[in-house]
Amino acid sequence: MLEQFLKPYRVLDLSDEKGAFCGKLLGDLGADVIKVEPPTGDSMRFRGPFAGNEVHPEKSLHFLYFNTSKGSITLNIETSGGRDIFRTLAGKADVVIESFPSGYLASLGLDYPKLRDENPRLVMCSITPFGQKGPLSRYKAADIVVMAMSGYMQLIGDPGGEPLVPGGEQSFYPASQYAAVGIAAALFWRDAISGEGQRIDVSMQEAMITYYQEQTPATMWCKTGQNLSPIGAMGGIAPPCGIYPCKDGWFSFSVVTPEEWDTLAHWMHEVTGNDEVLEEKYRGGFFARIPHRDMVNALIIEFADRLSARELFLEGQKRNLAVLPVNTVADLLEDQQLNERGFWVNLDHPVVRELRYPSLPYYSGTSGGAPRKAAPLLGEDNVRIYCGELGYSLEDLSVLRTAGTI
To answer: What is the pLDDT of residue 158?
Structure first.
């Protein structure tokens, strides 16, 4: 197996779905990530879809994806015994990740200042909708709230239509990615320079804002007083540019230079016989076609309706044009490029059996970022951690379980 970047580090993951991807990133990079779950299991275990359509805490595909390369212990930190155990665990850990509402851990005596007193080298990362300070710091928020509050939704949808939210709870990913980078930087600072831990405060709203700065919304507003608005699937600045329908699906397309347009125009004429596409008014760079956006898009649709996505891709490559299919999941699983790079990894789970996972999108010749193991069973590391590391006996665990501590 390839060496792992973060192998020496112990991470305690208290987060829900807002920060689960952060723990997954660290775990896939080799850190010993322990998911600290309530005795009944993390809420993600009860979120569908489920393998075999059976509602079961070990069959949530959502949980199975976001918790690869992690271990699991059960611990009720709302009991005095659970809090004592967590302080002991944090005293030996390198990192704690949490996504509770601001102030919750402080109410339990488990906030960073208290944990830092016992472990000055601890790095603690909080991932919350609006951060740890400010008038919204104690507000809760689902993905759609963060997407709206970040302004990202103003870019999604058709021109003149209502803002839309992208699928897949996209606001969780930037926050977790920034959290993972911040944690790695804090560990480097600790180990290479200061010897001290750090408190990292990640605002999901702020993280999401930074993900669409290529649209320069703040600059546009400050300089022109204009707010960004949705541009739609075919609304790129350089027509034709965007997502278009074809005979068997959808494809993406972008033509910018005069040479690209001439090449495309002759190809379209070959397919449709429509002389309109050869009109002089469409020639030149993309600025020449902006006043004729609707007609250009109509010509593209007429042309593409006669070809499949694969035909468009292959012929477009021959003609040196940026024409690419909009892949389905089935397309991705069979994709030669992804498979030759070893992007897909099969992991065996004790209950669900073999599942296929994506790796992390970077590779080093000596170190890898692929998931190392399937998501853990609930409490599968209780004996390893409580008995092997903290010195409890099996009888002690039985008592703690009866008391509702683990």
So the answer is: 78
Fold of 241-327: formyl-coa transferase, domain 3 (3.30.1540)
Parallel, antiparallel or unpaired: strands 199-203 and 241-246: unpaired
pLDDT confidence of residue 306: 96
- Please name the residues in contact with 166: beta carbons below 8 A apart, sequence gap of 6 or more: 147, 152, 156
The neighbouring-strand residues paired with 164 are: none
**CATH entry 3.40.50.10540 includes domain 10-211+342-402:** yes
> Where in the chain are the domains?
10-211+342-402, 241-327
CA distance 358 to 212: 24
Give the pLDDT score at 1: 42
Burial class of 188 by CB neighbour count within 10 A (0 to 12, 13 to 18, 19+): exposed
Where do the DSSP E strands lie in 297-359?
322-325, 344-349, 353-358
pLDDT score at 152: 84
**In what order do the strands lie in the sheet containing 123-128?**
70-74, 32-37, 10-13, 95-98, 123-128, 199-203
In what helix (H) or strand (E) does residue 204 lie, and over which residues does it extend? Answer: helix 204-209
How remote is the C-alpha of 295 from its chain's centroid? 37
H or E element at residue 54: none
> Is the Cα dihedral 42, 47, 50, 55 positive or negative?
positive
pLDDT recorded at residue 231: 65
Predicted local distance difference test score (pLDDT) of residue 246: 94
Residue 120 DSSP one-character state: T
| C-beta atoms surrounding 225 within 10 Å | 7
The parts of the chain modelled with pLDDT lower than 70 are: 1-3, 213-216, 228-238, 363-369
DSSP single-letter state for residue 194: I
Does residue 113 contact residue 170 with C-beta atoms inside 8 Å? no
- CA–CA separation, 355 vs 61, rounded Å? 10
Q: Please write the tens of the pLDDT for every residue from 263-318.
A: 999 999 999 999 999 999 999 887 888 889 889 999 999 999 999 999 999 999 99
